[in-house]
C-alpha cells in the first residue's frame, strides 16, 4: 500500500487536533487526508503545513478512504461507523458507544492487540482506562491480579476545550476576587476538587468509574474486581491515578520496578527521596505512561501501590488510536 487514505471525524475538536499533530509527528504514511465534522464544517485544519478544508460528514464518500479516526460524539459514531465499515474502511472509534459491544474489540496495543482479529471497527478505551491497563498488564502477566482499587485525578481537558477555558476564566476570577459563577461543572473547578467525573449511575458510581471497571475487565478478558473513584482536578492536561493492586503471587518491589521499567509504553519515575515522582506536568506532551511511588502495602499480603500518570489527549486518546493502526499496517503491506 502506497500510503493510507485517512479521514478524521471530529477534526476540529481537542482529540481530532491532537490526531493531526501526532500523525505528522510520527510520520504516519498519509496518502490523503479528509477532515470531517458533524458541525462547523467550512472551517479548515492544518496538517503538514497545508490548510485542509473541513467537510460535513453527512456527504462523505467512504469508499475514498482506508482508515477513519472517529473523535466525535457517541451519536456520530453510532450513525456513521457502520456506514464506513460497510465500505471497507477500518474505523478506530474514540467514543464510548461501541466499547462494551461484545463484537467490537476494545484495544490498547501494549496489552491486547491480538483482540483485533479481522475487525473493521475497533474501539479505543476511555483515557483513564488506557493508562491504568498499560501499567497493570506486566504485573498481571508476571504475578496475576486479584483486585484493583483506583482513585483518579483527572484533568479538565478530559471534558473538552470549553472546560479548559472555564478553568482559565475561573482562576482569573478567583485571583481578582470576583464572584465565580460555575458554567462547565456544577461547582467551580478553579482551586477546587470535584469528587466525581460524569453522571452518577448504578450504586452511586459515576459513568467514568463504571468505565474503569467494565473496560478493564473486557480488555483483560477476566472478571477482575476493579473499584474506582474518579475525581476532577484543576489541571489542564494529564490524568493521574493512585492504583492499589492485590496480586496472586508474591513479589519483590525491586522486581516489580524492574519489570515495569522494561515494559512497552511505560517509564518508571520512582526516586521519592530525590523528589523524582510522576506528575502531570512531566507526562504532558509525550506518549509514555509514567509510573512511580511503587511500594508494598504495609498490611495486606501481596498488596502493591503505585501512581500512574499520562497525557489524556495523547496516549489516552489520539496516540492510542494511531498506534492501533500502525500495528495493522503490516497486514496491509
TrEMBL record:
It catalyses: L-aspartate 4-semialdehyde + phosphate + NADP(+) = 4-phospho-L-aspartate + NADPH + H(+). Substrate binds at residues 154, 232. Its EC number is 1.2.1.11. GO terms for molecular function: aspartate-semialdehyde dehydrogenase activity; NAD binding; NADP binding; protein dimerization activity. The active site is at residues 127, 239. InterPro entries: Asp_semialdehyde_DH, Asp_semialdehyde_DH_beta, NAD(P)-bd_dom_sf, Semialdehyde_DH_NAD-bd, Semialdhyde_DH_dimer_dom. The keyword DNA-binding does not apply. GO terms for biological process: 'de novo' L-methionine biosynthetic process; diaminopimelate biosynthetic process; isoleucine biosynthetic process; lysine biosynthetic process via diaminopimelate; threonine biosynthetic process. Keywords: Amino-acid biosynthesis, Diaminopimelate biosynthesis, Lysine biosynthesis, Methionine biosynthesis, NADP, Oxidoreductase, Threonine biosynthesis. CDD domains: ASADH_C_bac_euk_like (cd18131), VcASADH2_like_N (cd02316). Residues 5-119 form the Semialdehyde dehydrogenase NAD-binding domain. Phosphate binds at residue 99. Pathway: Amino-acid biosynthesis; L-threonine biosynthesis; L-threonine from L-aspartate: step 2/5; Amino-acid biosynthesis; L-methionine biosynthesis via de novo pathway; L-homoserine from L-aspartate: step 2/3; Amino-acid biosynthesis; L-lysine biosynthesis via DAP pathway; (S)-tetrahydrodipicolinate from L-aspartate: step 2/4. NADP(+) binds at residues 12-15, 157-158, 312. It comes from the Bacteria. Catalyzes the NADPH-dependent formation of L-aspartate-semialdehyde (L-ASA) by the reductive dephosphorylation of L-aspartyl-4-phosphate. Belongs to the aspartate-semialdehyde dehydrogenase family. Homodimer. PANTHER family: ASPARTATE-SEMIALDEHYDE DEHYDROGENASE, DEHYDROGENASE, PUTATIVE-RELATED. This is Aspartate-semialdehyde dehydrogenase. It comes from Sulfobacillus thermosulfidooxidans. The gene is asd.
Amino acid at each position: 500500500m502506497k500510503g493510507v487514505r485517512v479521514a478524521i471525524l471530529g477534526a476540529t475538536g481537542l482529540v481530532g487536533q491532537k490526531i493531526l499533530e501526532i500523525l505528522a509527528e510520527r510520520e504516519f504514511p498519509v496518502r490523503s487526508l479528509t477532515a470531517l465534522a458533524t458541525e462547523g464544517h467550512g472551517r479548515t485544519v492544518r496538517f503538514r503545513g497545508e490548510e485542509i478544508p473541513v467537510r460535513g460528514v453527512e456527504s462523505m464518500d467512504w469508499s475514498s478512504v482506508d482508515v477513519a479516526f472517529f473523535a466525535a460524539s457517541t451519536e456520530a459514531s453510532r450513525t456513521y461507523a457502520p456506514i464506513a465499515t460497510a465500505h471497507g474502511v477500518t474505523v478506530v472509534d474514540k467514543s464510548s458507544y461501541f466499547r462494551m459491544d461484545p463484537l467490537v474489540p476494545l484495544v490498547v496495543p501494549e496489552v491486547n492487540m491480538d483482540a483485533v482479529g479481522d475487525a473493521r471497527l475497533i474501539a479505543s478505551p476511555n483515557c483513564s482506562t488506557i493508562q491504568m491497563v498499560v501499567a497493570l498488564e506486566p504485573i498481571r502477566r508476571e504475578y496475576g491480579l486479584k483486585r484493583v482499587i483506583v482513585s483518579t485525578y483527572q484533568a479538565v481537558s478530559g471534558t473538552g476545550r470549553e472546560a479548559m477555558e472555564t478553568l482559565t476564566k475561573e482562576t482569573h476570577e478567583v485571583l481578582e476576587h470576583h464572584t465565580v459563577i460555575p458554567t462547565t461543572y456544577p461547582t467551580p473547578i478553579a482551586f477546587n476538587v470535584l469528587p466525581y467525573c460524569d453522571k452518577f449511575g448504578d450504586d452511586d458510581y459515576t459513568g467514568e468509574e463504571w468505565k474503569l471497571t467494565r473496560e478493564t475487565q473486557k480488555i483483560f478478558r477476566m472478571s477482575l474486581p476493579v473499584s474506582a473513584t474518579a475525581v476532577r482536578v484543576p489541571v489542564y492536561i494529564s490524568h493521574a491515578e493512585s492504583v492499589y493492586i492485590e496480586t496472586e503471587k508474591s513479589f519483590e518491589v525491586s522486581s516489580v520496578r524492574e519489570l515495569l521499567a522494561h515494559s512497552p509504553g511505560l517509564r518508571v519515575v520512582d526516586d521519592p527521596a530525590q523528589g523524582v515522582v510522576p506528575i502531570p506536568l512531566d507526562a504532558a506532551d509525550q506518549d509514555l505512561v509514567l509510573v512511580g511511588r511503587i511500594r508494598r502495602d504495609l498490611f495486606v499480603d501481596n498488596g502493591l501501590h503505585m501512581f500512574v500518570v499520562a497525557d489524556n489527549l495523547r496516549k489516552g486518546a489520539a496516540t492510542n488510536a494511531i498506534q492501533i493502526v500502525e500495528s495493522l499496517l503490516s497486514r496491509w503491506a
